[in-house]
Amino acid sequence: MKIDHVLTTCPYCGTGCNFYLQVVNERLIGVIPCKTDEISQGRLCIKGYNAHTFVQHPDRLKHPMIKEKGKMRKASWDEALDKIVSEIKRITSEHGNDSVAVFASAKCTTEENYLFQKLARSAIGTNNVDHCARLCHASTVAGLVYSFGSGAMTNSIPEFEDANCILVTGSNTLEAHPLIGSRILKAMENGAQVIVIDPRDTPLSRLAQFTLHQKPGSDIAWINGMIRVIIEEGLFDKEFVDGRTELFEELKQVVQQYTPEEVEKITGIEPKMLVDAARTYAKADRSMIAYAMGITQHSNGTDLVKSLANLAMVTGNVGKESTGVNPLRGQCNVQGACDAGCLPDFYPGYQKVNDTGANKKFRGAWKSNLSTKVGSTITSTMEKMESGEIKGLIIFGENVMVSDPDIAHIEKALNSLDFFALVEIFPSETSKFADVILPAACYAEKDGTFTNTDRKIRMLRKAVGPPGEAMPDWKIACELGKKFGAEGFDFSSPAEIMDEMASLAPIYGGVSHGRADTEVISWPCPTKDHPGTKVLHVDGFKMGRGKFAPVHHSPPNEEPSEEFPMVLSTGRNLFQFHTGTMTRKSPKLEQEAPEPYVEINSGDAKMLGIEDGSRVRVTSRRGSIALVAKVTERIIPGTIFIPFHYAEAAANRLTNPAYDPIAQIPELKVCAARIERS
Amino acid sequence: MTDFKPSILAFCCNWCSYAGADLAGVSRLQMPPNVHVIRVMCSASVKPEYVIKAVTQGIDGVLVLGCHIGDCHYLTGNHRTAKRIPLLQKILDEAGIDSRRIKLDWVSAAEGEKYQKVVTEFVEEIRRLGPNPLREVRF
Amino acid sequence: MNDPGKEISRLAFDERGADYLLAVREEYGNAGPAFVAKGEDVGDIRTDIPYQLVTILRKIYPYMEDGKIAVVIRRCEEKALNELIKRGIIDGDRIIRIGLACSEGQIEACRCTDPVPSCVDIGSPGKGWNEDQLSKELSAMSSEERLDFWVAQFRKCNKCYACSTNCPVCVCDHCVLEECTFVAEKGIPPGMAFHLIRAYHLSDKCTECGECERSCPAHIPLLTFRKMTNRDMKDLYGYESGDTETVSPLLTTLEGDLLEEEED
Fold first, then answer.
1. A590 touching C, CB under 8 A?
2. Nearest residue in chain A measured CA to CA from C161
3. Which of residues 291-320 of A touch C (CB under 8 A)?
4. SS3 content of chain B, % helix, strand, coil (to 5)
5. A7/C contact by beta carbon, under 8 A
6. Which of A372, A520, A558, C8 has the smallest number of Cβ neighbours within 10 A?
7. pLDDT at B136
8. What is the largest CA-CA distance in chain C?
9. Does the CB of C234 have a partner CB in chain A at under 8 Å?
10. In degrees to the nearest 10, what's the CA dihedral of A119, A121, A126, A129?
11. How far is B71 from chain C (nearest CA, A)?
């Protein structure tokens, strides 16, 4: 009889709750929240409590597989790995190194992601490495790097409790980040004012003191409007603006035209509400901003993020405890995957690939000739696959056939590939297209670290062995690296990989498994004796002064038309996670939210003859899906909402791949659509 | 308040109270029209969850009618009910839901008049209490 | 207390003949549940972090075919264990109790009226509280005010099921809270029925351990609600849960005879 309780990190959202997996004789039987964990404090959400259920599901991939004459057959590891290496080598020798791309995974550990980008850069020789951050917070990285010099959450999760005002926009915090929501509820108990700005009524907005509904895609207008009110009424922090920022006059000029009345025309927000919210945010001693996909997934996402940074800087709410601009990251390790350099323009630790110094440093360390050409993002890789410029693809754990915008386009892109290898834990909608499939270990079956949304290094500890012949991704990456003939893939443990990454990425300089095992460290942590950094920008911004971004409102790429009169927005619900690869195999989660639905305002529904529970068809310029209507007053008229978890009615068949010019994040939050009874 | 038409559920045991209700009907006894009768095999098959569901969804009053103690077709079914309902009433009270909205009584097959009396008085009581406040509450 | 681990280990394995020990232990800078077999190192045992060990025991118990298990147990957990023994879920002869008296701070956090285990092995017995301030305030309110209070509280519910998952005496094989028949609302918050059904179900089992309240991410004062309904149970039927003999009044006739098992 062997019974263990293994402390590890939740594999769902970016909050990074720690819990104990209960293991009886290699069988996972339950989850117990860790009471001394500073993030979760002995609490979890329903996904956390069910995080053990999918791990030992019978559908898990157990053997490597190779496609032969259109059919998948079992293969040995050697055969499958050799096939990948020979095919990729064939493609690069014929078409050059940049004809291959690697997608890393925000569901894998930081160590594994470090190896994925090393594999792409050093073994294959391309900077074409990216991951799903492109679809969620690419604009955050770009926007906040512009404004503050660092693209991560400025403050830490526990600080929410002590804020006097919390402005939440484009984030359904109680459903998508429940344990951060819990902190916001605590803050409210302590007397904090909460302002929620969202086109939908969310569980949090129903509790908040201020709820403002803006039209999707109109956010810059209300932010500029609030800044105007704050400047007009002298509520801005002159000392901070004068001492720590630049371009204030330009900002002042730009926001001038955003009078409350003008803002109402664009956003639909009542002038009085806007003014009250602006005053509340500006007058509070410590104001925090929390945001998520509602801000980032727009074709002007980078500008939107900059605007929020403007708002925080105008009021001096940066660089202090319980203030700041806080992007809530959606994947357990999307922060870590970015930190590890799984971005086409950055080496680990946000060192630019086209910077000669950085290039030289990594050449030396990896003993390999590295390209200085910025690689291709997921969004542009998809385009290049369709045009034939990219012919080989390796994906580590991403279900692009559900998660990426305009699935018909993705399907074409995957079909155009010469060779496609996929590393996954379950068969997915994407695995049908793969030429080689490798079975990976999931979070409970390996050691490593995740970096959560507030930059904390969270340990993952192996609780059970992987099913069948499945291997952890870091081993797979090592094997591939060696077979490519590259140096520096001889790792015997994730701890060694972290040591190498720490030696090359200054923000991780003091991080090691030894420390992370018993300590909670937030990066930047440059040295072994550095305690880590909870609040960023305390003594100044990385580049000296914080930079205001004078930006104007611009309409979304696609606006409603006669043929497509509704605005379609997509997002999450509480019970499912992303493409459902894990949650839909967890019985208790699936039973709570088993089928795809579209939320529609009751007034619109009445006009269209749609009742609650009617079968409807939603169509956009790119596709059409059938699902069930959920009639509600909790969404503004003219807008419909579909959670994107359900492959059988994938919202991303409809979404618009138009993207932000800087961050190349697609506009998943707004597209024009039509809804009708079916 | 005068045009408040309460919406009331009456769970009636198949063997006694339902027959009592039937007798009241056949005897042409005047009764308020707001009561929806639900026939159950025994008052004990009225799970407390049913009553909770009714009340939380905005039903103004719930009557649970069974056989007199000693007359239960299943011998002790109504003992179960007799233990449950008072507890349920207390719990609802603690949550701020007036326990007078739930009433337990015994009506035999021969007691058409008692059925009329119980129902009429209950409807009056609910009228006095006014609409269930949970009708208006949106979570 | 200097190293309670040694004392607990001695009591469990040497004095009382346990084969296994379930306790709370420090590891990786955190305190968490630990299940140790006789002869293994018990490690750095902690007694100040209130994990609900009876819930954890109940989850692993079905996998344990033999052996005696020692559990470090507070008064409320001891009572919960008794409820499980009474219901035939756990065989009392296989459990060895190591009584832990709660600290003053813990007693205060739980507004606990009954903090001293039947046998105090670790810690020194503290004095129980007389009443829960919030229940007193709520009882003094009008029913409209009370309803407003609870609606505002339940509105925060995130349907994580922590209150039932972590509850030592939530023992149904199939939970009605998961059925849309009873909890009609899809999504969150789940509305009033969820909490009322739970209150009713626990009325003859709850031992006021407070685990529901501690693990509630919405900070709903669930322990107060439990205390209020427990008081009702006592007023109505003179029943208090927590021993191995007294049958729940919901399972007896008006004369106190045992009713037949109810089928679902």
1. no
2. A46
3. none
4. 45, 15, 35
5. yes
6. A372
7. 86
8. 59
9. no
10. 70
11. 14
Other chains touching A, judged by 3 or more CB pairs under 8 Å: C
User: Which of A29, A46, A517 lies at the smallest CB-CB distance from C159?
Assistant: A46
Neighbours of C91 (CB within 10 A): 11
Interface residue C134 vs chain A (CB under 8 A): no
How many angstroms separate the CA atoms of C71 and C21, rounded?
A: 6
Asked whether residue A12 falls in the same domain as residue A145, the answer is: no
**Three state DSSP letters for A138-199:** HHHHHHHHHHCCCCCCCCCHHHHHHCCEEEEECCCHHHHCHHHHHHHHHHHHCCCEEEEECC
Q: Could you tell me if residue B1 is inside a domain?
A: no
pLDDT at position C176 is: 86
Closest C-alpha to A428, from A418, A420, A419, A437: A437
Cβ–Cβ below 8 Å for C236 and B57 = no
Distance from C-alpha of A229 to C-alpha of A495, rounded to nearest angstrom = 51
Cα separation, B79 vs B64, in Å, equals 13
Instruction: Say if A519 is an interface residue toward chain C (CB within 8 Å).
Output: yes
Contact C187 A593 (CB under 8 A): yes
Task: Please check the confidence at residue A379 and state whether its pLDDT lies above 60.
Answer: yes
Contact check, Cβ <8 Å, C182/B134: no
Instruction: Say if B2 falls within a structural domain.
Output: no
If we measure between CA atoms, which residue out of A292, A287, A305, A300 comes closest to residue A147?
A: A305
| B69 contacts C193? CB cut-off 8 A | no
Q: Which residue has the tokens 């050691």?
A: A447
Task: Tell me the HSE value of A458 on the side-chain side, using a 13 A CA sphere.
Answer: 32
Tell me whether strands A193-197 and A165-169 are parallel, antiparallel or unpaired: parallel
Q: Which among C29, C56, C64 has CB closest to A32? A: C56
pLDDT tens-digit readout, B107-126: 999 999 999 999 999 999 99
Kindly indicate the confidence band of residue C223, based on its pLDDT and cuts at 50, 70 and 90: very high
The answer to whether the Cβ–Cβ distance between C160 and A178 falls below 8 Å is yes
Confidence of residue A437 (pLDDT cuts 50, 70, 90): very high
Pairing outcome for strands A27-33 and A615-620: unpaired
Residue C174 burial (10 A CB sphere; 0-12, 13-18, 19+): exposed
Backbone angles phi, psi at B114, to 5 degrees: -65, -40
Task: Look at residue B56 and tell me if it is in a domain.
Answer: yes
Q: Are A605 and A629 in contact (CB under 8 A)?
A: yes
* Cα Rg of chain A, angstroms: 24
Structural domain range at position B104: 8-135
The answer as to whether A111 is a domain residue is yes
Is B95 close to C155, i.e. CB distance below 8 A? no
> Is the pLDDT at C263 greater than 60, yes or no?
no
* Residue in chain C nearest B135 by alpha carbon: C192
Burial of A214 (0-12, 13-18, 19+ CB in 10 A): buried
Is the CB of A43 less than 8 angstroms away from the CB of C215?
A: yes
Which residue type, as a one-letter code, is found at position A263?
Answer: V
Residue type at A475 in one-letter notation: K
Q: Residue A540: inside a domain, yes or no? A: no
Structural domain span for residue A199: 138-328
Give the gap in angstroms from C-alpha C141 to the nearest C-alpha of chain A.
20
Q: In this predicted structure, which of A163-172, A292-301, A484-493, C183-192 has the lowest mean pLDDT? A: C183-192
Give the list of residues 6+ apart from residue C223 with CB closer than 8 angstroms, or none: C110, C111, C132, C208, C210, C212, C213
Amino acid in position A234: G
Residue among C37, C161, C218 minimizing CB distance to A185: C218
Are A340 and A417 in a shared domain?
yes
Q: Which residues does B45 contact at the CB level (< 8 Å), separation at least 6?
A: B77
Asked if A312 contacts A188 with a C-beta cutoff of 8 angstroms, the reply is no
A612 to chain C, any CB pair closer than 8 A? The answer is no
**How many domains does chain B contain in total?**
1
Tell me if C37 and A1 make a contact (CB, 8 A cut-off). Answer: yes
